[in-house]
Amino acid sequence: MSSTETPDSGKLTPRAASAESADPYMPGHGTDAFKVSRYELDLDYKLASNRLMGRAVLDAVALRAVSAVVLELVGLRAVKVQLNGRKVRRFSQRAGQLVIVPDQPLVAGHPFALDIRYEGNPAPRRGLWGEVGWEELTDGVLVAGQPNGAASWFPCNDHPGHKASFRISVTTDDNYRAVCNGLLVAHSRKSSRETWAYEQTEPMATYLATVQIGRYELLQLHDAHGAGGVPQFVAVPAALAATARSGLAKQPDMMRTFINCFGPYPFQEYTVVVTEDELEIPLEAQTLSILGRNHLEPEWESQRLMAHELSHQWFGNSLTVSSWSDIWLHEGFACYAEWIWSEESGVMSVADRARAAWRKLNTSAKDLLVGDPGPELMFDDRVYKRGALALHALRLRCGDIAFFALIQEWTRDNRHGSVSTAAFILAVDRATGLDSELLLHSWLFEEALPELPVS
Fold it and tell me: Is the pTM of this model over 0.90?
């Protein structure tokens, strides 16, 4: 059982160790006092009672001397903690944080391992962006981690700039499939329980880790191997299988288009999970997208959402912002990918999409900086559309050949890494010789809307 003791006075307080380096958009969330290189998660989940028993093994290294390790864990109770194989005598939980106090302070540069047993009834956490995290469906589970929902189901250093490899094993009710990030490496059945284990070798931010549980069949999409050699699957309830195949029929072509534009697909597989429930919006996770049954229509609104989520595998998952203030590097790129697919599929040209977006922005409030929108507005539609227009202006300035060569160089040089607006501007300058800061500044760091770029 956990202790309620706190670290000795005179030492660096746990809260200070966490908060002093947290992302400014997420005060109290994440720290650069230490870095986790690997998470191994073993989950046992009972659907009827929404009961989760978990074990998390974290391999980490201290980046500076700290007297306490502060992780995030929300709504679940840690019951046993070991540090480097030895029982931790002092750990406590408060305000969504798990504070672990070693007998001796951790020394900068030294690796350490945590083994944490925890349990409870997981639930989404509430915040500025609604409810995020572990959520019960009518018959299953959905995890929507962005931006701070990871701690609703495992203890973590929840910072977008920290990436780690993952192994996720889920034991749940018989006849239910668990779908997680990466490749399925093991599956077994015992005593009316099934265990599904996945390995995500490519580095992943914690908010992108996911668990989806449902009565899913796993189907391979036709012509998926022809789409740049990337296997594509859909996990779907049997009753929706035909609808899913029809709705996703163009996804292999989307994959080919995006590989041609953005460079090689950055992971080994891509899976779309289709829930029995209707969802307000689709969701992204590394190597996965999650659609509701209401997102399978052949019309443009559903197809653009599929394209948007697929493009996040490059922009958001492989290349992940080191700070949430640069969120346009995810959403502006994904919105522009929609426009590219619109033109490729014969729906509407990129130029017409840009004109329509500019007209809508011109009638909207102009009180937002796309390059630093603030936490309340980081998912505002203006960040998406104006970010896409910034890319369109850049494309018109340097031409198609130089633009797409730049984008492919950007995804190649930063593959599975962390990115920032400043780094993107430098990359544009190197690749094109343009003064990209002058070109992009009015789109990203001024409230007034620039004139619509024209060919």
Answer: yes
- Is 331:321 a contact under the CB 8 Å cutoff? no
Q: Name the packing angle between helices 436-444 and 381-398 (round to 10°).
A: 160
**Tokens in use for 154?**
């495992």
- Superfamily of domain 14-210 in CATH is tricorn interacting facor f3 domain (2.60.40.1730)
pLDDT, tens digit, 9 for 90 and up, residues 324-339: 999 999 999 999 999 9
Whether omega before 147 lies within 30 degrees of 0, making that bond cis, reads yes
pLDDT digits (tens, 9 = 90+) for 126-154: 988 899 999 999 999 999 999 999 999 99
Strands 177-180 and 232-236 come out as unpaired
DSSP string computed for 228-244: TT--EEEEE-GGGHHHH
Percent of the chain with pLDDT strictly greater than 70: 94
Q: What is the pLDDT of residues 85-133, one digit of tens each?
A: 999 999 999 999 999 999 999 999 999 999 999 999 999 999 888 999 9
Segments making up each domain of the chain, as ranges: 14-210, 217-311, 320-444
Right CATH for 217-311 from 3.40.50.720, 3.40.30.10, 1.10.10.10, 1.10.390.10: 1.10.390.10
CATH superfamily of 320-444: Neutral Protease Domain 2 (1.10.390.10)
3-state helix, strand, coil in the chain (%, to 5): 30, 30, 40
